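Field log, afternoon session.

UNIT: design team B
ACTIVITY: writing a sequence onto a fixed backbone
BACKBONE:
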């Protein structure tokens, strides 16, 4: 941390998303609506799981935690993007940039482990139904959630301790609407090749390996179901399709953002596809996850109706 004070750069310049006033108003409306949808949709999932005793099972407890993480991940960037839309000089302080990087990777690491835990839960429920309650007991569920947070923090700290001590004394244009490791590292006044490789391995390759592992595990589940009963295959595929969709939406942007090399032009990093996938990761995916899991899940839809009736009854009594 002592080297932070020695850095000449005290703030970073962020990239504006809208060059014209009309586009700024359009993006302000879109991002605001999406962020409200993210908060309300995910909170509704959390409250439904908490209030309905029928959903006090490992799958829905993990889903509620996933909704909390989606809200946290989106909140690391979206509010600032909205506030920066009408600002001519978009800057973020050095310490705010570092804090944003840290929490992005904490939330991302936790979500990655939660998706693995949800895949394991579905594997146990579909392939080992007789042992499901003994394997996915409340103790195991709590252990998976705690493990997700521990791994998420370790994932973030393992990269953050190197970045926080980098010397920044030259260009300070991040070339994106938020701070993240690949872009900020390239602005350091030293050779960061080895550190870039660490970030690529830690965030990029781990995302790729986890993604392919999850897809293979879902294929294995479907093949196992088909071998036992072809009639249950369509039901299993319908159940798993929601999980597969969420996995693709989360990991596809991560793989592009951390594995794909960033183009650099005269010291300024810019990549339209990088910006697009970042928006998908922080804005689109968190608002789609509640819809995917609720609209394609009969138990969730029934639970939401029960919770809505309870709320309506409580209002009438008052």
């Amino acid at each position: 941390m002592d080297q932070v004070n020695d850095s000449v750069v005290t703030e970073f310049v962020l990239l504006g998303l809208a060059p014209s006033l009309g586009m700024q108003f359009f993006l302000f409306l879109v991002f605001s609506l999406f962020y409200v949808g993210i908060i309300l949709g995910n909170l509704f999932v959390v409250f439904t799981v908490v209030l309905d005793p029928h959903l006090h099972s490992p799958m829905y407890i993990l889903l509620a935690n996933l909704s909390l993480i989606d809200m946290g991940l989106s909140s690391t960037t979206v509010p600032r993007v909205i506030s920066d839309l009408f600002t001519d000089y978009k800057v973020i302080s050095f310490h705010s940039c570092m804090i944003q990087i840290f929490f992005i990777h904490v939330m991302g690491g936790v979500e990655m482990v939660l998706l693995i835990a949800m895949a394991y839960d579905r594997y146990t429920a579909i392939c080992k139904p007789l042992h499901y309650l003994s394997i996915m007991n409340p103790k195991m569920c709590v252990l998976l959630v705690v493990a997700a947070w521990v791994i998420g923090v370790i994932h973030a700290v393992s990269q953050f301790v190197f970045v926080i001590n980098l010397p920044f004394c030259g260009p300070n244009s991040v070339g994106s609407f938020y701070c993240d490791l690949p872009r900020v590292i390239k602005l350091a006044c030293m050779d960061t090749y080895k550190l870039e490789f660490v970030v690529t391995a830690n965030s990029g390759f781990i995302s790729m390996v986890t993604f392919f592992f999850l897809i293979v595990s879902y294929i294995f589940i479907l093949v196992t179901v088909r071998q036992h009963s072809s009639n249950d295959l369509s039901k299993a595929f319908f159940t798993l399709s929601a999980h597969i969709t969420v996995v693709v939406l989360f990991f596809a942007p991560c793989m592009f953002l951390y594995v794909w090399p960033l183009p650099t032009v005269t010291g300024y990093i810019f990549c339209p596809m990088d910006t697009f996938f970042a928006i998908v990761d922080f804005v689109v995916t968190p608002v789609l996850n509640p819809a995917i899991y609720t609209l394609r899940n009969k138990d969730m839809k029934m639970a939401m109706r029960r919770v809505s009736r309870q709320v309506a009854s409580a209002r009438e009594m008052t």
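LOG NOTE: The domain at 2-317 is CATH 1.20.1070.10 (Rhopdopsin 7-helix transmembrane proteins).
NEXT ACTIVITY: expression trials, pending approval
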